[in-house]
Amino acid sequence: MARDTSPSLFWGPLSTFGLSLAAITAIADQGHKWWMLKVFDIEAKGSVAVAPFLDLVMVWNRGISYGLFQQGSTWGQVILACFALAAVIGLTIWLARMTTFIGAAGAGLVMGGAVGNAIDRLVHGAVADFFSFHAWDYYWYVFNIADAAIVAGVVGLLYDSMFGSHKKVSNTP
Predict the structure, then answer these.
(1) Is 55 tagged catalytic?
(2) What is the pLDDT along the chain (173 residues), one digit of tens a residue?
(3) Which of 29, 55, 120, 129 is catalytic?
(4) How far apart are CA 65 and CA 133, in angstroms?
(5) Do the Cβ atoms of 64 and 87 come closer than 8 Å?
(6) Exposure of 149 in the CB half-sphere (CA atoms within 13 A)
(7) Is 166 left (phi over 0), alpha (psi -120 to 50) or beta?
(8) Which residue among 55, 120, 147, 160 is the active-site one?
(9) Is 4 a catalytic residue?
(10) Extents of the domains making up the chain
């Protein structure tokens, strides 16, 4: 009897890869945040210059990207964490249908970053951000590993959506 290899709602051929990358990303993010807060003690140190263009700082972000939609209440943080969970569920369903590694990597990075930041919201009531890139008097927003993973993941998903193998036209009828 032939085995059905079509993807299920939550599982497909690249799900193991994408979900493994998500787990690695979330663990790396949470491990780095733990180290910055408990071992390096960034809150006590204030700003630490690492390079002429990079400082380590401590910022508690109670909103989303770029500090938008600030939430001062516990319920606001729970709602933002639930939004991240909904995004992870949606991306898991999408991942089950993906056919390229770059798409699966993108989904995994976004999911891992979303989980890492959601954990912060539920544990600390805000997201811990540390990296401050700057040039001359221009300072970019402060971010963390989860934020960088989300941005890289979105770039991967966009690339896959525009140039992925599913966009190639077959010459066969």
Answers:
(1) no
(2) 555 556 688 898 999 999 999 999 999 999 999 999 999 999 999 899 999 999 999 999 876 665 555 566 677 777 878 888 999 999 999 999 999 999 999 999 999 999 999 999 889 988 999 999 999 888 888 999 999 999 999 999 999 999 876 655 445 55
(3) 129
(4) 15
(5) no
(6) 26
(7) alpha
(8) 147
(9) no
(10) 19-40+55-164
